[in-house]
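Margin note: ligand = pyridoxal-5'-phosphate.
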Amino acid sequence: MTGCDRIVELRSDNSAGVSEEILDAVGRANSGGAAAYGADEWTERARRRVAEVFERSDVSVFPVVSGTAANAIALATLCPPWGAVLCHDSAHVLQSECAATSMFSGGATIRGIPGDGWKTTPDAVEAAFRTTRWGDPHHSQPTVLSLTNPTDMGTVYSPDEIAALAETAATRGLRVHLDGARLANAIVTLGCSPAEVTWRAGVDVVSLGATKNGALSTDAIVSFDRTLDEQLTFRLKRAGHVPSKMRFQSAQIEAYLTDDLWLRLAGAANRTARALADGLGHLGVQLAATPQANMVFANIAAATADVIEAAGVHFHRAGGPGTVRFVTSFATTDEDITLALSRVAAAVRA
Ligand SMILES: Cc1ncc(COP(=O)(O)O)c(C=O)c1O
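Resulting structure:
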């Protein structure tokens, strides 16, 4: 394809393909028979990799096929039917998962709380506590705090921010869940260890994303609390989330976490997002948020967005009226960014 007719894919990291390393690992796993339903050597090796990377020998790992499954089943495990999950107003679990958590938990509510920069704060959690009628059977009882890192708008919580939130949550006995659909992107930005931004900061269970960052078809529930194992095991089976050929998902997780592949892929996506954001800034396009991961939200009038789209840059209109969302992935190249910026420049000029 020439520069003129080449499509620049910036709709979502879900629209990207699969990293070669992960595809190769799936191919290598395709040799002979293996025990089904996770009793295979790939699944054991994936668990050991997660244990190494998160510096916790007692970690439990449950591969699932989507981030929604990881979130909903993890939260249902942490939250009784009469419970409430507190999360930021913008959180994917509240806005974009069709109340899967409520279904899998047998009725728990998901309660949005505010916070600037799409991140919630200890003050917002305390305010939610103050407006809870604790012990009143007419009112859902907050049981879990769910954080998303990076947030759905691409901002990032630091380990200290997570620790402060977990401390506040603990004052009322809430457990902490982390939606890490793009956790690798946050870790690269923070330059911290996976342990620091999760269990050392007080997180009990992580939805570990991989598909958005180069895997083929797997995310995983990573639990730092072995007492949840039995519930997770049975809930996953009842939800249809124990794939018989789990070795192919586990092979992806193993490859993803080997030799820092997940961080290299996320680093590439973060770098092109930064280049895009800088380039948009030079063109005078206002950003709706300072990008800290692989998402760039820009204020672009609908008519201009139409022109950019017609020129072959794919993106989503998301984040509010007059806002468009560009998402880079491990597969986004410098040429993609140059081409996208030249098309935005032409549209802005027009
Ligand atoms: C922050 C976040 N969490 C969870 C999900 C859900 O992932 P899936 O689409 O694989 O169910 C998404 C999907 O875009 C997401 O952006």
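The pocket of pyridoxal-5'-phosphate is lined by residues 66-68, 71, 92, 148, 152, 179, 181, 211 (CB under 6 Å).
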